[in-house]
Amino acid sequence: MPVRLVFPATRAMLPGMWRPLSIQPRQAGPGTSRTGRTGPLHGRAGALLLLVSLAGGCTAHLAPRYDPQTAAQIAATYKAVTKFYMHLRETAEGQRDYARFASRYDDVAVEMKTLAWSARRQAHNRASIDMARRVQADWRAIETRHRKRDRYADALADVDEQRLDNLLDDMARVESYKRDPPGGS
Amino acid sequence: MEIDFEQVFRNMLVAARDRLDAQGPRARDYFRKVLEQQKDVLARLARDRVSGALSDEDLRMELEAVRADVAAALEGLETIAREAVDGAWNAAVGVLLEAVKAAL
């Protein structure tokens, strides 16, 4: 199993910024332990880790693995947000009192909480965890504003939905790069 | 008064770029991509504020939310100091707010 290392500065989600470093273990053969590990591999990997750590003051992190459950939950959350705003727009602006939407806020919040939980299950997954938390924080702020004002104008709905879409797009992009890192293993 | 958002956005990028000069081309390029991702949201906010669909409070609250979204998107880019990103963001949004103010 190759180990993927990623510079912290390149864990981000945009193309060209993802630089995984693959270390391929040796083929099993004479001198290989039952676990398939060899001394020289560990020595080289250790030296490489040290080199990576020292170069440019960077520290190396094990890259999070692609998680199909998180990817599926991002899609589920996107769908829940889309349904919420479709329903909102189908309701005349003058009839958008908070009580009418309270349970729908809960439905979306459940999907977002599940997304955050799914991201937390993985080690070395700080970027995804933070983005999932941001999605939740955005949603709480949107709900709080709606409850306080007891109305929700189209203009705000459009930008709020776009912002949530952008965050979920980022999360989906991160998952895609975990699965197929450009130039990676 | 109409707002020429394309010009405003170019000015925003210049303002942000100046703040990120010391961080190197990769940081500038990355911030530009993140800001461009929010371009539609920023354009909508500016136009809706100028048209009166959004209040000044709405605009400021939404911009604060976008700032936090951008910070989340930048998570993982630890080599860019958070202060530098905040400075670039403030410079970029300063341009936007000036343009809106002028158009009102």
Quick rundown:
With 185 residues, chain A is mainly alpha-helical.
Q: Can you tell me about this structure?
A:
The complex is a heterodimer of chains A (185) and B (104). Chain A is built from five helices and three strands. Chain A folds into two domains: 3-55, no CATH class; 68-184. Chain A is mainly α and 185 residues long. Chain A has a three-stranded antiparallel β-sheet, with no helix packed on it. Chain A has helices at residues 39-54, 68-90, 102-120, 126-149, 154-179; strands at 3-6, 20-23, 61-62. The model of chain A is unreliable at 1-61 (pLDDT under 50). By secondary structure, chain B is mainly alpha-helical. Chain B has one domain. Chain B is globular and about 40 Å long. Classes of the chains: A mainly alpha (185), B mainly alpha (104). The A-B interface holds A 8-14, 17, 58, 126-127, 130-131, 133-134, 137-138, 141, 145, 153-156, 158-160, 162-163, 166-167, 169-170 and B 26, 30, 33-34, 37-38, 40-41, 44-45, 48, 53-54, 58, 61-62, 65-66, 68-69, 71-80.
